[in-house]
Design a protein that fits this description.
single chain; alpha+beta; Anthranilate synthase; 20-stranded antiparallel sheet; 12 helices; 20 strands; 32% helix; 33% strand
């Protein structure tokens, strides 16, 4: 049972900084921020959410992970926040993940927060579990009057970024993936590479604020679970449930931004009309339609936007939106299990693509290309895709970010490598200052 109180407030950048700084006293923190992204705002219930301080939690490897999450979610019937790593695929299909991993995130981690802050247009709704409800008014006053804030423009400590996959090795591996495509083993593969820095310490709050300031994405996430962190500037929604409506919004197709408006529009139009980018987006849209049709009410799977180009601070992105209706009694966790991992991060056909990319990638993906999000007490949910994200293990002093792209028969290796560097730009800028 939760006690609810509402306050009239405008969610300013200064208040966001206070909330994130104040939250660092807790071992478990999830901050989700839409950055008032008008393109996606109509599809988001809240402007931002902060959840802190676990009352209960579930942490497990991939073995029967979705069954355990199903039991936890159905029994708790409360707010749950956490993540799903890409490697949960091994519990859904007969797959494995044997690549190098120095992040060591558990495969699945969710917690039931004692304290939840839900930000809407001009108010915040605060929900506290009843045994901490006497702290609510004090906490809110403490947040409003919080003095310590971070300026994202301040210099961060210098981090030396290394590439797990050399440029020559990337091209060699990509040519072999193209051979699989030419043989007809797959149509498309999302091939990723890791950039990392070991024996490194970062200021997580400052790093996240700077990253978010650069990118202003609609699915930004600050996640802290003990000494594990995800600082995410994700532009992509994996899947959401609102009542009986399911929405998935895969991204496939990227172009850089230009400071000159005319040149920028030219780049946007080129992306819109690029046959290679459109074909890779349409392939994944088809895959998502197929995933949703497993549980959708007959005749309700619809593509409401196909290959629509949205502009973000760093890049233009091609997004498709697929929706469907589900039975009111369909379990929330089963919907995620039947669509996981998201097609935009695998390829098509999904299982064949996952097997092939496992052989060519040099690092275990872990939380990268997994998802962070939440379940509501009523069983709705919203999850992003963990891309454009810095992952950090404080104990191991290990910092990592990965980037990738969709490889199709029309892929030009040099352009694919360039696209990876475009996607890496914001993370690199933040970490290397």
């Amino acid at each position: 049972m939760r006690i609810t109180k509402k306050y009239t407030v405008k969610l300013t950048e200064a208040l966001k900084h206070k909330l994130i700084c104040w939250s660092q006293q807790f071992e478990e923190v999830v901050w989700l921020d839409s950055n008032e992204e008008s393109n996606f705002q109509s599809k988001s219930t809240y402007k931002a959410i902060l959840a802190v301080d676990a009352f209960t939690a579930i942490k497990t490897d991939y073995h029967q992970a979705f069954d355990q999450l199903e039991e936890y979610q159905s029994k708790t019937k409360d707010w749950l926040f956490g993540y799903l790593t890409y490697d949960l695929k091994n519990g859904v299909e007969r797959l494995n993940s044997n690549n190098f991993d120095d992040l060591n995130f558990p495969d699945l981690y969710f917690f039931q927060p004692k304290k939840v802050f839900l930000f809407m247009e001009n108010e915040v709704e605060i929900q506290y579990l009843h045994f901490v409800d006497d702290e609510l008014a004090f906490d809110w006053e403490e947040i409003i009057n919080y003095k310590e804030t971070y300026k994202a423009s301040e210099s961060t400590s210098i981090v030396k970024i290394n590439s797990r996959t050399s440029k020559d090795s990337y091209f060699n591996k990509l040519h072999k993936i193209l051979e699989h495509i030419q043989r007809g083993d797959i149509y498309e593969a999302n091939f990723c590479q890791e950039f990392y820095s070991d024996n490194t310490e970062i200021d997580v709050v400052k790093t996240f604020i700077h990253l978010n300031e650069i990118s202003k994405p609609p699915f930004a996430t600050f996640l802290k679970l003990g000494g594990l962190y995800s600082l995410s500037a994700s532009p992509e929604r994996y899947i959401s449930k609102n009542g009986t409506t399911i929405i998935s919004q895969p991204i496939k197709g990227t172009a850089k931004r230009h400071s000159d408006h005319i040149e920028d529009e030219k780049l946007k139009n080129e992306l819109t009309n690029d046959p290679k980018e459109r074909s890779e987006n349409i392939m994944i849209t088809d895959l998502v339609r197929n995933d949703l049709s497993r549980f959708a009410k007959k005749g309700t799977v619809k593509v409401t936007e196909l290959c629509k180009v949205y502009s973000f601070s760093q890049v233009h992105q091609m997004v498709s939106t697929i929706t469907c209706q589900v039975d009111i009694n369909k379990s929330p966790v089963s919907i995620i299990k039947e669509t996981f991992p998201m097609g935009s991060m695998t390829g098509a056909p999904k299982i064949s693509a996952m097997k092939i990319i496992e052989n060519f990638e040099d690092a275990k993906r872990g939380l990268y290309s997994g998802a962070v999000g939440y379940f509501t007490p009523g069983g709705d949910f919203d999850f992003n895709v963990i891309i454009r994200s810095i992952l950090y293990n404080l104990k191991n002093k290990y910092v990592s970010f990965s980037v990738g792209g969709a490889i199709t028969a029309k892929s030009i290796p040099e352009k694919e490598y360039e696209e990876c560097l475009i996607k890496a730009k914001a993370m690199r800028e933040v970490l290397e200052n």
